[in-house]
Write a structure and sequence with these properties.
By secondary structure, the protein is α/β, with parallel strands linked by helices. The chain has six helices and seven strands; from the N terminus they run E-E-H-E-E-H-E-H-E-H-E-H-H. Bound molecules: guanosine-5'-triphosphate and magnesium ion (MG).
């Protein structure tokens, strides 16, 4: 699936400034510095669409990016602010902040949330709470274990299996550095957004289904 155009749409720190819901949206959530913005660049096959940083807390607003795909389909990707940077107090727990919560609970076009964790750290309390919250909103969750390039090849499979067992759901291994896992995740997200893959991308699957 070719990406004809990828562009920054707008940045919002206020619910009133969200773009009118026109297209299917996929949001990206995860701890601060886990690699959300890098993953969006990798999916969009652009090096500098989204600003990345080695300082945690780089993304503080909701940032919208618009992909125009082969066949003129449009998909919006939404980079959410990272959590876990500032310690949440007890009263703040179970709350993701008014902006994130109103976005997650009111967007008619939101098809799924990609929850990104570091393959070396696995699921942490904040991630589990977010999965519960998303499930309560009946939003689909794609759990991505990123930075797999940081662990030796022979450990990857075991590590991903362990996370899968703990999470009780499918895990998408990923590396924004090498692009490993990109095509599998992108195809799954297009499906969640009801964007049809061109016939050639589906070739193998269709052949399988015929037999
Ligand atoms: N080796 C490796 N480094 C990565 C990968 N993904 C992200 N990084 C690095 O991790 C750091 C943080 O990446 P970002 O994409 O800015 O992380 P973020 O989750 O958007 O961070 P905030 O916006 O601060 O919440 C950067 O130095 C990236 O280069 C990966 O798959 N492999
Ligand atoms: Mg970021």
């Amino acid at each position: 699936m070719k990406i004809h155009d990828a562009r920054f749409l707008l940045s919002s720190t206020d619910h009133e400034q969200l773009p009118p819901p026109a297209y299917a949206e996929i949001a990206f959530a995860g701890r601060s510095n886990v690699g959300k913005s890098s993953l969006i660049n990798s999916l969009a096959q652009r090096k500098k669409l989204v600003r990345t940083s080695n300082k945690p807390g780089a993304t503080r607003a909701l940032n919208f990016f618009r992909l125009t795909l082969e066949g003129d389909a449009t998909l919006d990707l939404v980079d959410l602010p990272g959590y876990g940077y500032a310690q949440r107090s007890k009263s703040e727990r179970r709350s993701w902040g008014p902006l994130i919560e109103s976005f997650l609970s009111t967007r008619p076009g939101l098809r799924a949330v990609v929850l990104i964790i570091d393959v070396r750290r696995g699921l942490e309390d904040d991630d589990r709470e977010l999965i519960d919250y998303l499930t309560s909103l009946e939003l689909g969750v794609f759990l991505v274990a990123t930075k797999i390039d940081k662990i030796p090849l022979h450990q990857r499979k075991l590590r991903v299996e362990a996370i899968k067992k703990e999470a009780g759901r499918r895990v998408f291994p990923y590396s924004s550095e090498t692009g490993d896992g990109r095509d599998v995740l992108f195809r799954s997200l297009l499906r969640a957004a009801s964007i049809e893959l061109p016939a050639k991308d589906e070739g193998i699957k269709l052949a399988d289904e015929r037999s």
